[in-house]
Amino acid sequence: MLKSVYTYWNNMINLVSRKDMENFYIRHVLHSLSVAKIIAFLPGTRILDVGTGGGFPGIPLAILFPGSEFTLLDSIGKKTRAVAAIADELKLGNVITVRKRAEEEYGKYDFVTGRAVSGFQQFAELISKNVSETGNNRLRNGIIYLKGGNLDDELAIFGKRITVWNINEFFGESFFETKKIVYLPV
Q1: Residue 166 CA to chain centroid, in angstroms?
Q2: Which residues of 104-117 are buried (b: 16+ CB within 10 A; e: fewer)?
Q3: Model confidence pLDDT, tens digit, residues 118-145
Q4: What angle do CA 30, 147, 24 make, to 5 degrees?
Q5: Of the candidates 161, 58, 169, 130, which has an alpha carbon nearest to the alpha carbon of residue 182?
Q6: CATH homologous superfamily of domain 2-185?
């Protein structure tokens, strides 16, 4: 059902690359759900998904964690409208969408997620203001970021404060060979 909903909306506006639709579950859904390999959000956890685009990682995580609250933020109105319609069609009462730039968002959340929105340092500087200091999850509140490639130079500034998981340790598909989950407690 998820792929058919996305196919419908993707034909109207470009939420994900059209060539990626044949690999939709691996490149978008499973990639998003890799976050669940490092944390199971407790009920009541508030997550801000910055630069959600087509709703990734927010929509798959909202399906997996129905007791958590997801705010999906993007500056492009047609994308937030489509993602809101997708969330409605999937009956996800734990999702709200907001059309806004990250600089304009001042709400506090337990975690802020993103998926290859920008360089990690720029992302962290932009949204660390949105991470609440108090939380109840196994991981301390912070930033959870999905990104590919060699991140050594990009992440060096954070030293030992940062934790990186190679997603190919969780999933065997070649797509995940260079994909990583970056976690920065705030």
Answers
A1: 16
A2: ebeeebbbbbbbbb
A3: 999 999 999 999 999 998 999 999 999 9
A4: 30
A5: 161
A6: Vaccinia Virus protein VP39 (3.40.50.150)
Q: Where are the domains of the chain?
A: 2-185
What does the pLDDT look like over 15-28, one tens digit per residue? 988 888 999 999 99
Residue owning tokens 């937030």: 80
Is beta strand 69-74 parallel, antiparallel or unpaired with respect to 95-99? parallel
In order of 47, 67, 93, 174, the CA distances from 62 in angstroms are 9, 8, 9, 26
Find all residues with CB under 8 Å of 180, minimum gap 6, and list them.
146, 147, 148, 151, 164, 165, 166, 167
Q: Is residue 60 reached through a cis peptide bond, with omega within 30 degrees of 0 on the bond before it?
A: no
